[in-house]
Amino acid sequence: MPIKMKELPKAERPYEKLEQYGEKALTNAELLAIIIKTGTKEDTAIGLAQRILKLNSNEEEDGLSFLREIAVEEFMKIKGIGKIKAIQIKALCEIAIRMNSITNYKEKIIKTPGDIAKILTEKMRFEKQEILKVAMLDNRNSLLKIKDIAIGSSNFVIATIRSILNEAVKIEASKIILVHNHPSGDSTPSKKDIELTEKVEQASEILGIKMLDHIVIGNNNYTSIFSKRLQNEREERK
C-alpha cells in the first residue's frame, strides 16, 4: 500500500517544501507532482511524476526538456494521468518556451551572431522540422522584422533566393541574417547550407542588401557560417 501524500512529513510534501525552502529545493518529480496535483488509490502524485520521468528515452539527459516531445496521448498511457493533467503538462512546457523567448525584439541592435541566436534559439531548438527564417535590419543594425521563409523536413529545407530576399526588398531593409535550425541538435553547417549562403550573399549584393551572416541553431548551441568561414580562411593562410 503506497504512502499517501498527507502521510508524508510536512517538510517532504511538495507544496509545503516549496513554501518553506523555495522552488529550487524541489526535485523534478516534486515539481511535476505540484502540476499533477492528485494521485490515485495506487500511487501518489510524486509516484505518477516519477513514472512520467521514466518516459525520457535519453539517458544522458536528466532534465525536463524531453517533456516537450511527449504527446498528450503518451502521457495518458500512464494510469492516473488523464487528458486534463496531460494537457496541463503540455501547457507548462509551452509556458517555459515562451518565458525563455524574446518576443519584443523590434528595434533591438544586433551586434554579434549571438544576439540573433539568443532571440531565436528557444523558439527553434526543439522544432522537429527545419525552418528557415530571415532577420531584416536597417543600416544601424536595428532589427526590423523576422520572417519565416520555408519549412522543410527533419534534415533539409528548400527555399528560393527570391523568397528569401523579397520581404527585405519590400520593407527596404539594408541588411539580412539567415537563420535555420537542425532538428538533430548538431549545428554544424551542411554542404547545402554553405551553398545556399553563398548564393544568397551574391544575390543580395546585387540588390544592395548586405548579408551579415547565416546562423545554424542546434540543441542549445549555434554556428555562425560566416565566422566558421573566416576561421577556415585564417587556418589556410597559416
Descriptive account of the structure:
With 238 residues, this protein is an alpha+beta fold. It has helices spanning 14-21, 28-36, 45-53, 72-75, 83-100, 113-124, 161-170, 191-206, 225-237, and strands at 131-137, 143-151, 175-181, 210-217, 222-224. Strands 2-1-3-4-5 form a 5-stranded mixed sheet, with helices on both faces. Strand 4 (210-217) and strand 5 (222-224) form a beta hairpin. Helix 2 packs across helix 3. The longest helix has 18 residues, at 83-100. The N and C termini lie far apart (71 Å).
Structural class: alpha+beta
From the N-terminal CA to the C-terminal CA, the straight-line distance is 71 Å
Largest sheet: 5 strands, mixed
The average pLDDT score comes to 87
Portion in helices:
40-55%
- Give the count of helical stretches: 9
Low-pLDDT runs = none
* Helix-strand sequence: HHHHHHEEHEHEEH
Find the count of extended strands (DSSP E, 2+ residues): 5
**What is the chains' assembly state?**
single chain
Strand portion, in percent? 5-15%
Q: Indicate the overall shape.
A: elongated
Strand order of the largest sheet: 2-1-3-4-5
Radius of gyration: 23 Å
